[in-house]
Specification:
Aminoglycoside 3'-phosphotransferase, Chain: A, domain 2; Phosphorylase Kinase, domain 1; globular; 294 residues; alpha+beta; two-stranded antiparallel ribbon
């Protein structure tokens, strides 16, 4: 990795490999290097293509990208300026309520700048490209997803009571989601950086697309751990949205993502992280049994 970066004219110093579900990610003193086999998914290409046009200050600057031969295989790479801070983390572990609410308020303001962005034609074309994002598209699409899930579940892994419960959620879903603004579509707390109680940047635009602000607000709210209700109130206040409307929209998106991941785990078990099926079944049980959004 050091050789690759030096060939780009960079002197990163020692590199540290960090956890990532879909890439190899290396941290240097001033740079971050993302690498993926060139034959795998193309989402990094999407992020690289969008990078020059994203609003200033939203994410880390892209320094270089391309294809490189590494240990006899072709890899796609992207090298970014390392931004200050660390990720608050899924569920905001160890973070108090006041800081959680402050981070959420800042996140909504930063996302507002993204949602207000008018992308140039080339970026708009990328954001319109088909992307199997697993999120809510329409009530009909959600019903088709659930039909596919039932058909793929040949061994009865998903209890019938959970299928009944998620079908009831689908029945109350809106006709369709809008595709009116650019959204990040994966802005959970593992993709933000913060120093103390100050957000510094939003990372990983591989899932960016046209959607509606609720597609992003869902991630900020749903992955706030014990602060979920307080963060929902912050989002409601900052966006002038009814808390009831937020809860209903989050429930539909939560159900859709769970169903999408369960179907993936049933149909392509070798292509998903170990334990994904168990985790998502547990999440679905909690969604149906506890109704956390109601």
């Amino acid at each position: 990795m050091e050789t690759l970066l030096k060939s780009l004219g960079l002197e990163p110093g020692p590199l540290t490999l960090v956890d990532s579900l879909s890439h190899q990610v290396f941290l240097g003193s001033d740079v971050v290097l993302k690498i993926i086999d060139a034959g795998r998914h193309t989402r990094l290409d999407r992020e690289i293509a969008l990078a020059p046009d994203l609003p200033a200050g939203v994410t880390a600057p892209l320094l270089s990208s391309g294809v490189h031969t590494l240990d006899g295989r072709e890899v796609r790479y992207a090298c970014y300026t390392r931004m200050p801070g660390i990720a608050p983390g899924m569920g905001l572990p160890g973070i108090g309520a006041r800081t959680a609410c402050s981070l959420a308020e800042q996140a909504i303001h930063r996302l507002g700048a993204l949602h207000a962005w008018t992308p140039p034609d080339r970026a708009a074309q990328i954001l319109r490209e088909p992307l199997g994002h697993g999120g809510f598209v329409s009530r009909d699409a959600l019903f088709r997803l659930l039909d596919g899930l039932a058909a793929a579940d040949r061994h009865g892994v998903v209890p019938s009571a959970l299928l009944t419960g998620i079908t009831a959620i689908a029945a109350n879903a809106p006709d369709r989601a809008r595709t009116v603004v650019p959204v990040h579509a994966d802005c959970h707390w593992g993709n933000w950086l913060a120093t103390g109680d100050r957000l510094t940047t939003l990372l990983d635009f591989e899932w960016a697309r046209f959607g509606e602000p609720l597609d992003d607000w869902f991630f900020v709210i749903s992955l706030s751990g014990p602060h979920q209700d307080a963060v929902l109130d912050v989002v409601a206040r900052e966006t002038a949205t009814s808390p009831g409307d937020l809860r209903a929209a989050c429930e539909v998106r939560h159900a859709t993502y769970l169903a999408s991941d369960i179907l993936l785990a049933l149909t392509t078990p070798d292509d998903v992280p170990a334990g994904l099926l168990t985790d998502r079944l547990t999440g679905l049980e909690e969604l149906i049994r506890d109704r956390p959004w109601r």
